[in-house]
Amino acid sequence: MKPAVVLVSGGLDSATVLALARQAGHPLLALSFRYGQRHAVELEAARSVCQQLGVREHRVVDIDLAQFGGSALTSGQWEVPKHQSAEELGPEIPITYVPARNTIFLSFALAFAEVRGAADIYLGVNALDYSGYPDCRPEYIEAFERMANLALRATVEGQFRLRLHTPLIGWTKGEIIRQGLALGVDYSVTRSCYDPDERGYACGQCDSCLLRLRGFAENGVPDPAPYVDRPGGFQVPPEQS
């Protein structure tokens, strides 16, 4: 089977997608990005996840999206929004949206895939339990896949047709975690927080933390990642504490 390129951020979604790509039988090529994010601790998590799941080649690409700003994740102009529970999250696109991030990441993935002869790219976008980012929607993924097959020499010459795989796009966080646990994913090494402290401990109140915590609660298991108020991990949602 041809290798697959998997976008690996170090969070629970990408770890689960990596496990799914492995289950499908692909030799694994992983791609992560140091893009000026304040939560760069996720890159150490990405390395750990890749080691555990037997990735053949893991590349970390440097892109300075912080020079453009426009997001609380890459600019000190805004604070990362905090809430008391996941139910407080509204439908609007939050300030943690990074302009064009998935388009930029996928463009690098196209180049990596073509050079390595990979006809499949996996990414962990989700359209249910997510923060409303426009580049996580099914219609965006479909449009990008159409464009990708017009853009590569390998596809134009008929060597292969490139496919974007988004197996989590219609799953809740609870369903994602349930599948990952069944595949043996060690979520203790994953990091999802948008605003961790200097030790890398999760805040427990940003959008990403709250959705993650709710997903673990739906499975009746504690989150094993370390949190500021519980450094040893095993955090539960505030409304259930």
Topology:
Elements: E1 4-7, H1 12-23, E2 28-34, H2 41-52, E3 57-62, H3 101-116, E4 120-122, H4 138-151, H5 153-156, E5 163-165, H6 173-182, H7 207-218
Parallel strand pairs: 1-2, 1-4, 2-3, 4-5
Helix pairs in contact: 1-6, 6-7
Distance from first to last alpha carbon: 47 Å
In the CATH hierarchy, the third-tier topology is known as: Rossmann fold
What's the helical proportion of residues?
25-40%
Please state the CA-atom Rg, rounded to the nearest Å. 17 Å
Structural domains: how many: 1
Averaged pLDDT: 92
Estimated share of beta-strand residues? 5-15%
Low-confidence stretches: none
Q: List the total number of helices.
A: 7
Biggest sheet strand order reads 3-2-1-4-5
State the order of secondary-structure elements, H for helix, E for strand: EHEHEHEHHEHH
CATH superfamily: HUPs
C-alpha geometry: globular
* Highest-level CATH class: Alpha Beta
Just name the CATH architecture.
3-Layer(aba) Sandwich
Class of secondary structure makeup: alpha/beta
Major sheet, described briefly?
Answer: 5 strands, parallel
- Tally of extended strands? 5
